[in-house]
Amino acid sequence: MKFVRLKAWAFPIAIFAVLSLVPTYASVFDDRFILLFFTRILVFAIVAVSLDFILGLGAMVSFGHAAYIGFGAYAVGILAEHDIWAAWISFPLAMVAGGLFALFTGAISLKTRGVYFIMITLAFGQMAYFTATSLSVYGGDDGLTMWGRSEFFGTDLFNGDASFYYLVFAVLAAVYLLLRIFSASRFGRVLRGAKQSEARLQAMGVDPYRYRLAAYVIAGVIASLAGALMANQNEFVSPAYMSWHRSGELIVMVILGGLGSLHGAILGTVAYMVLEEVLSGYTEHWRLIFGPLLILVVLYGRGGLMGLMNGLSRRAEK
User: Fold this and answer.
1) Can you tell me where the transmembrane regions are (predicted)?
2) Distance between CA 227 and CA 7 in Å, rounded?
3) pTM
């Protein structure tokens, strides 16, 4: 039993261990690009994990999940425009803004199922996107430039590249552990049960709608937190953060890594963004190469990259 438990945690421990060494590698080889690049990866991994929580556990295919990145980023950017740089103010407000939007849109969207849910989340996401583009006082289509980063009680937590990386890393680890706890609790079991048979849960006296809505809001809050971090890393806020293309990329990251495992979403994010960086260096039509690779992983991985790795692990034991 102890062996099985250790084995189940082997992959996430390995993933976090490798990611924790990135600043050391960047320092030894004096490679600032790799540090900034992986900071960006970790920010997107936080969003991908939040999406995997509702998509992998509850089968809620949200095609407007990128909107919450924009809510978090704009909350920080707008406050900075008004000379409010305190992270203890901007970050909670970013999470509240995203949570309220998730509560409102989720209460409506979760009344639908299947393709209707996908389309209505897409519609709400596009509403948020076009609202951002219409904010001419905050840059409109051109976006909003931040002349600095948030402040945390006078420390350089946000200003140093390595310290900011470790901050994002800590947030990702905390989010991952929190969602793993939720997944293993009664809350997570209800989400899985609703995914398989909603009618059976209702017959047992359990209303899955409330659980789904709570999960949807949690995911929105986490994605908004990632948006606040993204605004600080880029020192720039753009409506492009909220586009449906970005939502589609997030879904691809989750599917590529493997649905439902949470750490699979992290692995999928790393793989997607590294492949994008490498392939785009050869051709601007890199998606023509990436598409077939994704299809091969989905077809033969039987659960994305995590499914592929689990399969290889089982074969190695035989």
Assistant:
1) 36-55, 86-108, 115-138, 164-182, 213-231, 251-275, 287-309
2) 33
3) 0.93
